């Protein structure tokens, strides 16, 4: 929903359409006046809208905005931006006092220079949540208040194109209108008809498409869109400068000229002027006067922004919970180097929004992170997990990755209807993977209290979400998660790519995506030696007590121990819930320190029966990127974090549990586990039976 800013104006920037956000249900508006569109006790919502699809249009958009502000309009002024408009550019729009609306590509372009496909996205202005909209191209400049246009009748109002018809006919059925300024009522019905003819829009371009679509448009005076080309081509029909309310710079584009060049243009010698026709001389002077007005308004805006400019990390003027933000932090250095390199990360929340209904307290969101090279892993997860997902997607090439992600969303829209996608762009080119920062983004932007932390190269079995949320056997999760219980999902791996289908035969119901579909099938694969506990050579999942889980039908308590890093479900809304330590990046210790912090903050670990996750057999790009250096650094960092947390939460080393929360009788107690050497020779203590 847009904000009413009194005398300020807002522009909407084109971006993805969020399920249900900003849509209007309007039956028929072709003969109504604004004052009759809504009930008398409701506020009539009007907006000036422009679009910012390229950084090249920055000065034009801002100057158009400034010219509207100076008219004293009370309507909203909005900028539509496409997904590839950067956080820095969005911040600038916010600093100029605008509201930004991010919209999707109408059709993802081949690249950011595909202007035909990009400009078709302005059709989404018909989805804005307003009673009346005036859509303006950035090449325009408003010289006087034009709020009177909101009150005029008509399905679409526009100025007749000055070169559309050689005749002076006022019959709009045979003449064309200029799309530079259009007045209309947003309507989802109209937009639906656009979609029915979207191939025509892609082929013809937006101007031709709209002229073909709106046969009953209403012509308004040229003073509302006076193209300076008319001054050059047809002096007689160009309005006088005093009458013009909106000018379009088809000639003498002021944003392409420097102040010096413009000043020189006003200093023609008397001898050269004597050689010009009087009409031509007058024409040039008026065009320069209009250009100087544009420059004046731009300078006024520039000065206003500089005088009020303050550092902003968040683009707070972006609508629909899509406020992009920036985070900077130094990479860890054990020697506390003063010039240690740092990450600069721009976050674009809800790049794609789930459209499934949620229960904040009685639902579970699977949260994970991934890069744009492995988006197909999301499809593998959603094939088995029908519940909500919150996914942070990592990018190192913003323009390329935005288009890649947009095409992925377009191609698999129905498959990912339950998925929130959040884009995180790293602009400092360290080529490190900020895994814990990404986990925090996905976790913070999930819309349920309970969250299932998982890495994207794991897949749950079919119907696991339904079992956890609807099977009475698992009701205790929602009962005890608010009591500080973290629920462990046992993790396994497949040793060969086709282990499941080879064992049970192709087409067997015991396999899906060549992974076991239930505990029975998994136990058979474990017995045959073609499946195993995930990374058995390490202690990361040893304390889940896999041998017990294989025959256990009830949940059971376990202790935390060093190196333990299970995949868990926990309640993020609790006061003592931690977040991931973001100084850990790439591999090693990143999840270990989070699980340690759960322990020192008083969470109890409980292993869930009958559910599990499987690591797919594949070569991970991430494994190939990791060096030994960050692992050594992380070991040092982990010791520092451990000492700090044990001191802060008064949890001494060697203490088996730091929890003060009660244990419950419907969860089975611990059992003895023998000590075991970890992969680096560290011996873990024996767990005691309680």
Describe this structure in words.
With 690 residues, this protein is of the alpha/beta class. It folds into two domains: 11-306, Spore Coat Polysaccharide Biosynthesis Protein SpsA, Chain A (Alpha-Beta Complex), CATH 3.90.550.10; 325-648, Spore Coat Polysaccharide Biosynthesis Protein SpsA, Chain A (Alpha-Beta Complex), CATH 3.90.550. Helix content is 29%, strand content 18%. It has 21 helices and 27 strands. The chain has a ten-stranded mixed sheet. Strands 1, 2, 3, 4, 5, 7, 8 and 9 form an eight-stranded mixed sheet that branches. Strand 15, helix 12 (398-411) and strand 16 (419-426) form a beta-alpha-beta unit. The protein is elongated.
């Amino acid at each position: 929903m847009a904000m009413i800013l009194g005398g300020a104006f807002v522009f909407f920037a084109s971006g993805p359409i969020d399920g249900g956000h900003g849509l209007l249900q309007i039956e028929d508006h072709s003969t109504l006046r604004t004052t009759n569109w809504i009930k008398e006790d409701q506020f009539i919502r009007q907006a000036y809208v422009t679009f910012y699809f390229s950084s090249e249009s920055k000065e034009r958009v801002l100057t158009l905005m400034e010219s509207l502000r100076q008219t004293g309009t009370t309507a909203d002024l909005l900028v539509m931006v496409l997904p590839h408009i950067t956080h820095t550019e969005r911040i600038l729009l916010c600093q100029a006092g605008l509201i930004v609306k991010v919209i999707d590509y109408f059709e993802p372009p081949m690249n950011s220079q595909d202007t035909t496909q990009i400009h078709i996205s302005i059709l989404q202005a018909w989805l804005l949540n307003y009673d009346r909209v005036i859509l303006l191209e950035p090449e325009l400049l408003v010289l006087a208040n034009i709020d009177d246009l909101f009150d005029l009748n008509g399905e679409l109002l526009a100025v007749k194109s000055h070169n559309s018809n050689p005749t002076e006919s006022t019959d709009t059925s045979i003449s064309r209108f200029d799309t530079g300024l259009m007045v209309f009522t947003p309507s989802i019905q109209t937009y639906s008809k656009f979609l029915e003819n979207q191939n025509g829009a892609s082929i013809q371009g937006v101007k031709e498409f709209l002229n073909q679509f709106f046969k009953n448009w209403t012509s308004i005076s040229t003073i509302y869109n006076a193209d300076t080309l008319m001054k050059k081509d047809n002096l007689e029909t160009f309005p006088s400068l005093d009458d013009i309310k909106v000018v379009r710079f088809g000639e003498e584009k002021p944003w392409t000229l420097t102040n010096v060049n413009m000043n020189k243009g006003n200093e023609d010698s008397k001898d050269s002027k004597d050689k010009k026709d009087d009409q031509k001389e007058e024409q040039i002077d008026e065009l320069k006067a209009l250009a100087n007005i544009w420059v004046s308004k731009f300078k006024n805006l520039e000065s206003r922004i500089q005088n009020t400019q303050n550092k902003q990390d968040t683009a707070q003027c972006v609508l629909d919970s899509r406020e992009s933000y920036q985070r900077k932090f130094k990479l860890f250095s054990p020697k506390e180097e003063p010039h240690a390199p740092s990450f600069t990360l721009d976050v674009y929340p809800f790049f794609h929004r789930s459209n499934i209904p949620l229960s904040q307290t009685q639902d579970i969101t699977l949260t994970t992170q991934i890069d744009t090279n492995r988006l197909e892993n999301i499809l593998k997860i959603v094939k088995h997990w029908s519940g909500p997902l919150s996914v942070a997607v990592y990018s190192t090439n913003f323009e390329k990755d935005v288009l890649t992600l947009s095409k992925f969303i377009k191609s698999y829209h129905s498959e990912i209807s339950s998925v929130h996608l959040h884009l995180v762009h790293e602009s400092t080119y360290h080529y490190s993977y900020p895994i814990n920062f990404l986990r925090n983004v996905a976790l913070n932007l999930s819309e349920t209290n309970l969250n299932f932390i998982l890495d994207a190269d794991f897949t749950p079995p079919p119907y696991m979400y339904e079992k956890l949320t609807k099977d009475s056997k698992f009701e205790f999760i929602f009962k005890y998660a608010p009591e500080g219980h973290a629920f462990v999902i046992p993790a396994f791996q497949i040793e060969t790519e086709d282990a499941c289908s080879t064992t049970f035969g192709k087409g067997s119901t015991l396999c899906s995506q060549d992974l076991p579909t239930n505990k029975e099938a998994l136990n058979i694969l474990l017995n045959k030696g073609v499946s195993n506990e995930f990374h058995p050579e390490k202690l990361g999942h040893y304390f889940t007590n896999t041998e017990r889980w294989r025959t256990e039908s009830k949940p059971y308590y376990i202790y935390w121990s060093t190196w333990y890093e299970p995949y868990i479900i926990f309640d993020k809304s609790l006061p003592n819930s931690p977040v991931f330590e973001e100084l850990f990046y790439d591999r090693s210790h990143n999840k270990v320190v989070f699980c340690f912090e759960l322990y020192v903050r008083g969470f109890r670990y409980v292993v869930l029966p009958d559910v599990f996750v499987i690591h797919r057999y594949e070569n991970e790009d991430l494994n190939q990127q990791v060096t030994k250096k960050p692992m050594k650094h992380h070991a040092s960092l982990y010791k520092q974090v451990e000492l700090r947390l044990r001191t802060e939460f008064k949890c001494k080393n060697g203490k088996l549990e730091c929890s003060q929360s009660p244990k419950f009788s419907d969860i089975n107690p611990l059992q003895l586990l023998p000590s075991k050497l970890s992969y680096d020779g560290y011996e873990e203590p024996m767990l005691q039976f309680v």
